[in-house]
């Protein structure tokens, strides 16, 4: 039964979601089968698309809303949340 | 961004470094990039596209794929997908989808 989960996580202060951190983020999302999104200020991006994630323009300290939908949604969301918290410049 | 495991092989310029495209340089770059799972080729415009199409003529088994994608954005999207172990099909699709991506 596909599950869906949602959570909010803040980018570490001083770490914007620019190319390298965004690549780390997307590569984490790609490890899972679930469909995942990341949203900020009403903009929603496919968490598995590097260009969509970059276009969010998320700066350090921003709250990101993550969603996952699929069989591995809980694991996917946990991994993605911890990825965001652990991002470094 | 993509990590060291993704081979990105540039092949810009004509023979002797002039403006243009060198078929030999492109062929060699494709060979260097090929790790067995397939190669996605991005071309900017004009002779580079004609050159790649000419090189691939007659060996269109899909292993080497010229994608219709923006050069920089397509390369970034493809490299990230490739480094995550995605299939050639998905890597090529990500590059082509970059055409519709906004920068901000």
Brief descriptors of the model:
heterodimer; A: 89 residues; alpha+beta; Histidine-containing Protein, Chain: A; four-stranded antiparallel beta sheet; 3 helices; 4 strands; B: 104 residues; mainly alpha; Rossmann fold; two-stranded parallel ribbon; 4 helices; 2 strands; 42% helix; 8% strand; globular
Give an overview in words:
The complex is a heterodimer of chains A (89) and B (104). With 89 residues, chain A is an alpha+beta fold. Chain A has a single domain (3-85), classed as HPr-like (Histidine-containing Protein, Chain: A), CATH 3.30.1340.10. Chain A is 34% helix and 29% strand. In chain A, helix 1 runs antiparallel to helix 3 (73-85). The longest helix of chain A is centred in the last third of the chain and has 13 residues, at 73-85. The N and C termini of chain A lie far apart (38 Å). Chain B has a single domain, classed as Phosphotransferase system, mannose-type IIA component (Rossmann fold). The relative contact order of chain B is 0.17. The longest helix of chain B has 13 residues, at 71-83. Chain B has four helices and two strands, in the order H-E-H-E-H-H. Chain B is mostly helical. In chain B, helix 3 runs antiparallel to helix 4 (88-97). In chain B, helix 2 links the parallel strand 1 and strand 2. A two-stranded parallel ribbon of chain B has the order 1-2. Chain B starts with 22 loop residues before the first helix and ends in a 7-residue tail after the last helix. Chain B has helices at 23-33, 47-56, 71-83, 88-97; strands at 39-42, 64-67. At the A-B interface, helix 1 and helix 2 of A face helix 3 of B.
């Amino acid at each position: 039964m596909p599950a869906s989960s949602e959570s909010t996580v803040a980018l570490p202060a001083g770490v914007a979601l620019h190319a390298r951190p965004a690549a780390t983020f997307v590569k984490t999302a790609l490890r899972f089968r679930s469909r995942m999104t990341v949203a900020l200020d009403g903009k929603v991006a496919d968490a598995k698309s590097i260009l969509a994630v970059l276009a969010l323009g998320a700066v350090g300290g921003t709250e990101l809303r993550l969603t996952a939908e699929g069989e591995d949604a809980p694991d996917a969301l946990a991994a993605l949340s911890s990825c965001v918290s652990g991002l470094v410049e | 961004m993509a990590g060291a495991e993704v081979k990105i092989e540039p092949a810009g310029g004509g023979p002797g470094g002039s403006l243009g495209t060198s078929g030999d340089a492109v062929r060699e770059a494709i060979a260097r990039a090929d790790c067995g799972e397939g190669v996605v080729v991005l071309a900017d415009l004009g002779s580079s596209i004609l050159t790649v199409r000419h090189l691939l003529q007659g060996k269109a088994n899909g292993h080497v794929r010229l994608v219709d994608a923006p050069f920089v954005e397509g390369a970034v999207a493809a490299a990230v997908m490739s480094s995550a172990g995605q299939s050639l099909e998905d890597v090529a699709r990500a590059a082509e989808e970059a055409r519709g991506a906004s920068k901000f």
